[in-house]
Write a structure and sequence with these properties.
single chain; Rossmann fold; 3 domains; alpha/beta; 9-stranded antiparallel β-sheet; 22 helices; GMP Synthetase, Chain A, domain 3
Length: about 625
Amino acid sequence: MNAPQFRPLKFGVTRVTLRDGVPGTHYLKADQELQAFPERMTDRLQHWAQVKPAHSFMARRVKQADGSTGDWQHISYAQAWQTARNIAQGLIDRGLNAERPVVILSENSLEHAMLALGCMVAGVPFVPTSPPYSLVSVDYDKLKHVLKTVTPGLVFASDARYAKAIAATVSEDMEVVMCEGAVDGRQVTTFDSLCATVATPSVDAAMAATGPDTIVKFLFTSGSTKLPKAVINTQRLWCANQQQMAQSMPVLAEKELVLVDWLPWNHTFGGNHNFGMTVFHGGTLYIDDGKPTPALIGETLRNLREIAPTVYFNVPTGFEAIANAMKTDDLLRKTLLSRVQMFFYAGAALAQPIWDSLYESQEREIGERIVMGTGLGMTESGPFGIFVTNPFVQAGDLGVPTPGLELKLVDMQGKTEVRYRGPNITPGYWRNPEETAGAFDEEGFFKTGDAVKWIDETDVHLGLKFDGRIAEDFKLATGTFVSVGPLRGKIIAAGAPYIQDAVLTGINMKEVGAMIFPTPAVRALSGLGADVPLSEVLASAPVLAKFQEIVNELAKSGTGSANRIARLCLLSEPPTIDKGEITDKGSINQRSVLTHRADTVAALHADTLHYIVKPQ
């Protein structure tokens, strides 16, 4: 049988060096050295403004009065540079600094981008904050925590949707800047007036004073059982990481970069990886106001029918929706596949049926496959850390370290934790010395908590694969360890397209259980109408019959208590950001779900839930 044909893609790192340390410890690094990188990201912005001033830096569809979106509004590199300088002057005039940074309450937008760039020019850190902290939360606890941690000197909000959160959390003596709308009973500065500030030579002086150690931004972790931590992002971290990405993924510099992207800028994947990539390479980023949810995926598909990206990034739920749509949407297939050189997913496991469906559409449309790149990283690593080495990627594969990043592989009770050391690693957590001290080991390696194993123990150059989170794994009452990551991925794959995610249960119990977050596909499976509550849909005979099939199939491959699902239940209540059960990128926080749904866990294992599915 012939091997599948892939659209050509060069991989930057294919050889590594492995050396032994003390017993139980090994070190892994790329043979390729990290090349020189800029001292600050603003140097790249200024460069492109001079080299190709009229080139489109960023675009977003114009919002209509009825809430719909119209044509694309573009900002060129020259416009972005001038606007950033003007905003920088306004921030300098206000005396803002790392002790009094700018908090941004906004989804991705052109104004959000300009303010971020203005902060970078002025050397004032900015804090892109998760919109749900303001728009979904009812107690605003996480927003209050952000404000208390960073003590801002200015708060920016895109519009009046944020007014209620501002009124509840922002002190009355704090300046608020808004693009439109107002906050009852308080003075608000317009964003236009901030942009109208005239730049003076003090802007050049402020930018010249910034360097590799200057803090660009604070990115908050998603938070699980603890409140989110403010990860310090320096110019060195960001610039080094972009150079590492360029060397690991040479495709980024081969053609003029075009991104179509929804990933939120308050998260490292969207805000550092993709936003930074655009600035670093002088590309164009089309802001996608869609999202991989039933209500918003239509906007993403509309954009991808119109704009052809050169590389495309998403999370598994997004690729699942795209894979399903491409089966019948000719224009989507034609446009999306016309010039894309690489797909890339992160955030959670990508089920094999989704992979297969994407390949099927690609072979049908262009006669070859598009490489699906992936790897491993985190907020504290910039985020890029590990990347695959060849096109034959399998679910769970991670690859090898990027140039300049050294990995430390440490035996941890039968698992292997991967730790990072390099110029792209955060110096720590803002105003949190205890967490910072605990995050690094005695050699200065950042302790990721991620477990890995070799793709092929006979060939270290293929690199590593994911083996779950150290903290997620648990023991049964028998003392047997349950490896959560691989088992969870197996459940999601077996249940496609009906399982969004799974949380494993059974800590200190005799057997493993699973709580299932279902996808909207279960509603069609049930045959019930759209107005029927989800709890009734999940209790319907067709849905229960399907999950009986799934759990029976899973049981056949179980070789012992640690990898056999003995019972499962379906959850009608989706995971919530407020409780830390889900992150902005859509991945489940296992520990937080178990904490907040302890009664359900207990009832599942006590057989007191109304519907429990067990292998037959």
